[in-house]
Amino acid sequence: MAAERERFYECEVKRRRVRATGGYEPFWKVKSVEEALGDNDTEFRCQFCGGAVKIFRRRSREGPAAHVEHKLKSDSEYCGGCIAFINATDGRSARQSSSPVQ
User: Fold this and answer.
1) CA-CA distance, 78 to 4, in Å (whole number)?
2) CB atoms within 10 A of CB 46
């Protein structure tokens, strides 16, 4: 049996907004991966733990939809939204990434 792989179809993307005092400030916005790729966003992170993710684009109509997966195994093992964390039976608790994307 093949191992189940995590797939997130939503992630956080870095955006900018105008400050009341002038200039811009960065903030993170949750978007679907398809929408983020269509908007040409370039900075992504996991919406649950803030860890780095890898983007997978849809390659064919029969293939999986565009999605993201964690880059670090340690992030996927302790991320509250991951299969590895949900299926764990050792009583671990969810935590933020050890190296979050700023």
Assistant:
1) 16
2) 28
CB-based contact 14:26 (threshold 8 Å): yes
List the structure tokens of 31: 């978007």
Q: What percent of the chain has pLDDT over 90?
A: 61
Q: What does the block give as tokens for 63?
A: 């293939």
| Residue 33 phi, psi dihedral angles, 5° rounding | -65, -40
Average pLDDT of the residues in 42-48: 94
Cβ–Cβ under 8 Å, residues 30 and 47: yes
pTM tops 0.85, yes or no: no
Q: Which DSSP state fits 66?
A: S
Domain ranges of the chain: 10-86
DSSP lists the bridge partners of residue 55 as: 68
Split at pLDDT 50, 70, 90, the class of 54 is very high
Q: If residue 77 lies in a helix (H) or strand (E), which one and from where to where?
A: helix 73-78
